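TICKET: design request
STATUS: open
ATTACHED STRUCTURE:
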């Protein structure tokens, strides 16, 4: 019995050290179907970061406005960016037009001491962003309760079909702590904090209009 308690204690100590010693400047990808609470989840996180003294930037109408070409901005220390519907800005079909400066932004995100959250209904955004993400968060909703499920990464593999051609299959690699209960929230408690009808602009020209 004592041996089991020691193992449990050691396990929780390792989890604590894993969380505390890791680099805090991470890139999170949030995936969820329509209505699962992606924007609400980012709003909930935005208010938490704001209370911690972070400079909060979003593209959905709360706190500081995030410019369309967000990758060209020099952000102050201790900043966090929330980018909703990232596929409207960096569609994976438009990979040839992905700016070099944007590649540098994501490559040097940790060195620039930025925390970045992006969301999408599917993995339909540029793979340059998907590849460097630290965590993929899959949202599960049960009635008004939203459960963020953390995964280390999404592996995309091609499987040959018997009829010919290939099928792309996504496999999720579970993180050490799949559910962070501190992130679980009631949808009704958040939706009043932002405009649920706000539409993300597809281009810089639309943003100016």
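STATUS: resolved
RESOLUTION: sequence designed for all positions
ATTACHED SEQUENCE:
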């Amino acid at each position: 019995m004592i041996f089991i308690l020691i193992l449990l204690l050691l396990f929780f100590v390792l989890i604590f050290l894993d969380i505390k010693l890791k680099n805090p400047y991470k890139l999170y990808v949030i995936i969820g179907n329509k209505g699962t609470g992606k924007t609400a989840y980012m709003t909930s996180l935005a208010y938490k970061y704001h209370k911690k003294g972070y400079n909060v930037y979003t593209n959905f109408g709360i706190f500081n406005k995030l410019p369309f070409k967000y990758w060209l901005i020099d952000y102050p220390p201790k900043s966090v960016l929330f980018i909703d519907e990232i596929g409207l800005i960096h569609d994976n079909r438009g990979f040839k037009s992905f700016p070099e400066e944007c590649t540098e932004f994501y490559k040097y995100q940790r060195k620039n001491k930025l925390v970045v959250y992006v969301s999408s209904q599917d993995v339909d955004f540029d793979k340059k962003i998907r590849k460097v993400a630290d965590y993929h968060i899959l949202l599960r909703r049960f009635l008004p309760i939203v459960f963020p499920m953390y995964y280390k990464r999404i592996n995309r593999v091609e499987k040959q079909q018997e009829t010919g051609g290939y099928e792309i299959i996504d496999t999720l690699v579970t993180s050490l702590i799949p559910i962070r209960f501190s992130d679980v929230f009631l949808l009704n408690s958040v939706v009043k904090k932002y405009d649920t009808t706000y539409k993300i602009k597809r281009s810089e020209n639309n943003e100016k209009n």
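CLOSING REMARK: The longest helix spans residues 2-21. The first strand starts at residue 27 and ends at 31.
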